[in-house]
Write a structure and sequence with these properties.
Elements (H helix, E strand, L loop, with lengths): L3 E6 L2 E4 L3 H12 L4 E4 L35 H12 L5 H13 L4 E4 L2 E10 L2 E9 L4 E6 L2 E4 L5 H6 L3 E2 L28 E5 L20 H4 L26 H21 L8 E6 L10 E2 L7 H5 L7 E5 L3 E4 L11 E5 L4 E4 L11 E3 L8 H7 L2 H21 L3 H7 L1 H10 L20 E4 L6 E2 L4 E4 L4 E20 L3 E9 L10 E10 L6 E20 L5 E6 L7 E7 L5 E3 L8 E5 L3 E2 L1 E4 L24 E2 L10 E20 L21 E10 L2 E8 L6 E21 L6 E7 L1
Parallel strand pairs: 1-7, 2-3, 2-8, 3-4, 8-17, 15-27
Antiparallel strand pairs: 5-6, 6-7, 9-12, 10-11, 13-16, 14-15, 18-32, 19-30, 20-25, 21-24, 21-25, 21-26, 21-30, 22-23, 22-24, 25-29, 26-28, 31-36, 32-35, 32-36, 33-34, 33-35
The structure holds flavin-adenine dinucleotide.
Flavin-adenine dinucleotide binds next to α1, β5 and α9.
């Protein structure tokens, strides 16, 4: 006897419901493909699941200048939904958010607790079906499709299909990687068993189990700390060995982790160092979070220089930006630094060719088994970044079906179509512009009720100029000067250097384009000081560095303008933060500060003009690229945008891409607010019929960045978007409008 067999036929089979697999399945399903999403655990999300509990991070984390860098698209939609429903960041509510998102898609059939353990081939390079049994139901499913996507983390489907893969670290010379070891080896980033504890309100005894480590008998505490303030949860660096094969030795590794976790808990409870008498274990994951195992090989293997040199690819379909974050191979028992964060200049591009197998024709892969070197993987592995590749592959699968193509053919003949499709679905593709011929908004005339000027005039507090201070301002054309409010305790001078980032996606002070020094007279009140710049910048921004000067105070505001940012330069005390250019410890780190230096720009280039909503960009690139109303009442905005054509158009769909503060870091930790203040909350869409406006749609309580509004073949020559309220921000911000 064996389990009864069931045949499932779909357009796309996604194996592994980690975050990239979920995004791939949703994207493909939304484009009309039938999809099976298969996961061998009962919770969705892989390492981000309720079971393992790792936070979803991305391109906006662990860097200095990855500003306005948060991934958009499906991963942003999921994160904003979770913020809205779950600001307390309860992991089971997060699971419900993921479950809702998947079950809402009628084209997805979900197979939980189903472990794929067999791959049957049609030819050497072609998968016919994958097969797996379901825990609890005594069923075996055979999943047939023309296309398969491996998001198992371990690359299990690729391995069983005979796909080329690597495991371990490349030698430095193979890809000219300075962060790689001299000789190749089998080491990987180690795994971690997550746990958390709770305060029970009364003393609780803990007796160390016989299998647990007595960590006082190891050398670990000489090199590692068990922090006092967060001792009720696992730390990422409570890691096991990265020297052994993470797949073959999986069970042995879990046992090693148990020994470590129960041993650490013994130290917390019984060493007398922590005052943790009332704490008790609440949860220990049944499986470790795996960081790295197999990497499947695609037509491109993303490597260190692709990332550090921010190389441009014709087939870019996503972006990343997390530092190259390489952990000590021996984890908690290492004598090395816990990790190294190799800091980048800014975000980097992810080419489509890293997402399909070079030798199995119908196999896509997203997730940590994507095609990178070990070093590049140190950055790509964060889940929002991986999810952008997942979404891209879901869209590529749709084009494969539409044109009867294989994944590689999309690169060869349909890559621009894929990129345009992804833009419509809110993926960020560095520098890529909306060129959709079906988008009626591209040829429309846009006018608005008002536009913000490029200035912040009303100082609310002062800040001493006691450290180097950077002011980032978008510039398009010649900028004669900026003025800033300054108070000086005695006669002195301001010295400044003006930089321009070399790439439009960057914000770093890179190329010097001007310098200056201006005398400042002593005064008891701040006065506007004009800094002559005389710089010419093509759709980019400038970084003005003010040198520290004793007795100088700058007028600051808490008001915000997208694209404008103030930062200070601090000495870096951490040996783990490494400069990619030198591979040495970074000497200084720039960090955003509270508030912004007030300024007036001369001239004001119309940076926040209404023409931004059909300029082809739906997020900052070079310039902020959004229409921003002047300052208004967040609850009663009274602002509007008019979209008009010379002739009557037939309208079936309107897509709005609102400002959702792409600098807001959506973190793992509980927050007060469950919405991003910048997002427009209440608005109406009207269309002109004869001389009057008729209501097409009234939206109240919006918290999403992208709003898709369906229309029923409305005939009109003009649309009017009337904005009544934001979620708290005193300006209305809209990146893009598309009309179909
Ligand atoms: C402790 C730890 C901390 C981390 N910290 C962060 C962080 O703070 N932020 C961040 O963004 N990233 C972090 N990472 C990295 C990140 O979690 C991983 O890179 C990411 O989860 C990889 O995604 P994935 O979908 O490829 O794999 P996974 O998340 O492992 O998902 C794979 C999925 O496939 C399923 N699966 C596996 N095999 C099969 C099979 N044979 N059949 C069916 N289903 C299968 C699994 O159950 C799982 O659901 C961390 C990783 C670890 C381990």
């Amino acid at each position: 006897m064996e389990f009864r067999q069931y045949r499932v036929e779909k357009d796309l089979i996604v194996i592994g419901a980690g975050m990239p697999g979920i995004c791939a399945a949703i994207q493909a399903a939304r484009l009309g493909l039938s999809v099976a999403l298969i996961n061998n655990r009962g919770y969705l999300g892989g390492n981000a699941s309720a079971e393992i509990g790792v936070s979803v991070d991305g391109a906006d984390g662990m860097q200095e200048f990855n500003l306005w860098a948060r991934e958009t698209g499906i991963i942003d939609e999921l994160r904003l939904e979770n913020l809205y429903r779950n600001p307390q960041k309860n992991r089971y509510i997060w699971d419900a958010v993921l479950m809702d998102a998947v079950l809402k898609e009628k084209n997805i059939e979900l197979f939980l607790n189903t472990n794929i353990d067999k791959v049957e081939m049609k030819a050497d390079d072609l998968i016919e079906y994958v097969s797996g049994s379901q825990l609890g139901s005594e069923k075996r499913f055979n999943f047939y499709a023309p296309l398969f996507l491996d998001d198992t983390g371990d690359g299990t489907v690729g391995y069983l299909a005979g796909a080329d893969f690597r495991m371990g670290r490349e030698s430095g010379h193979e890809f000219d990687e300075s962060a790689a070891p001299e000789e190749a080896d089998d080491c990987v980033l180690p795994s971690t068993l997550t746990f958390h504890a709770k305060d029970t309100g009364k003393p609780v005894r803990y007796i160390r189990p016989g299998f647990a480590l007595d960590i006082t008998k190891t050398e670990a505490l000489k090199y590692r700390t068990i922090p006092r303030d967060t001792f009720y949860r696992s730390q990422w660096y409570y890691e096991g060995s990265g020297r052994i094969n993470q797949i073959e030795n999986s069970e042995a590794i879990i046992q090693q982790h148990r020994e470590l976790v129960y041993g650490i808990w013994d130290y917390i409870k019984n060493s007398g160092e922590y005052g943790a008498e009332n704490y008790d274990f609440e949860y220990i994951a049944p499986v470790p979070g795996k960081r790295e195992s197999r990497r499947l090989m695609g037509d491109h293997i993303l490597s260190e220089r692709d990332i550090t040199e921010q190389r441009d690819f014709e087939d870019t379909v996503g972006h990343g930006g997390w530092s190259i974050d390489l952990h000590a191979v021996d984890g908690f028992f290492s004598k090395d630094l816990v990790n190294k964060h190799i800091f980048l200049k800014g975000i980097y591009q992810i080419p489509y060719r890293t997402g399909y197998s070079r030798n199995i024709s119908n196999l896509f892969f997203a997730g940590r088994c994507m095609s990178t070197t070990h070093v590049a993987f140190g950055s790509t592995r964060v889940m929002a970044t991986l999810s952008t590749l997942g979404q891209a592959l879901g869209a590529a699968a749709y084009l494969c079906k539409k044109y009867d193509l294989m994944p590689r053919d999309i690169y060869k003949s349909r890559i621009q179509e894929l990129r345009q499709l992804l833009l419509r679905h809110d993926q960020y593709i560095v520098g890529c512009k909306n060129e959709d011929p079906d988008d009626l908004a591209r040829s429309a005339k846009i006018t608005a009720s008002s536009e913000s000027r490029l200035c912040l005039e009303d100082a609310e507090f002062e800040r001493p100029l006691d450290k180097p201070l950077g002011l980032i301002i978008p510039v398009d054309g010649c900028m004669a000067s900026i003025s800033i409010p300054v108070r000086a305790a005695s006669d002195t001078a301001i010295e400044y250097t003006v930089y321009e980032p070399v790439k439009r996606e960057n914000y770093n002070p890179e190329r010097i384009i001007a310098r200056g020094r201006v005398d400042v007279r002593a005064s008891s009140d701040p006065s506007w000081v004009r800094l002559p710049l005389n710089v010419s910048v093509d759709r980019n921004k400038i970084f003005i560095e003010l040198s520290p000067q004793a007795g100088l105070y700058l007028g600051m505001t808490r008001d915000k303008l997208p694209g404008v940012m103030s930062m200070v330069k601090n000495p870096n005390g951490s040996p783990t933060l490494v400069d990619a250019a030198t591979m040495q410890m970074k000497e200084f780190i720039w960090r955003p500060i509270e508030g912004t230096v007030c300024f007036k720009a001369d001239p004001d280039h119309g940076i926040y003009s209404s023409s931004n909503v059909n300029n082809g960009y739906s997020r900052p690139y070079g310039l902020p690229n959004l229409w921003l109303s002047e300052k208004t009442n967040a609850d009663q905005c009274g602002e509007y945008i008019r979209i008009s054509w010379h002739e009557v158009k037939t309208i079936n769909e309107i897509i709005l891409y609102f400002d959702d503060d792409l600098n807001y870091r959506i973190s793992y930790w509980p927050v007060e607010n469950n919405v991003i203040p910048e997002v427009v909350r209440d608005y109406d869409i009207l269309y002109k019929s004869g001389d009057e406006y008729r209501l097409l749609k009234s939206v109240r309580g919006n918290y999403k960045r992208v709003n898709n509004i369906k229309a029923d073949s409305i005939q009109t020559g003009e649309l009017k978007l009337v904005f009544h309220a934001t979620n708290g921000f005193p300006r209305v911000g809209l990146y893009e409008v598309r009309v179909y």
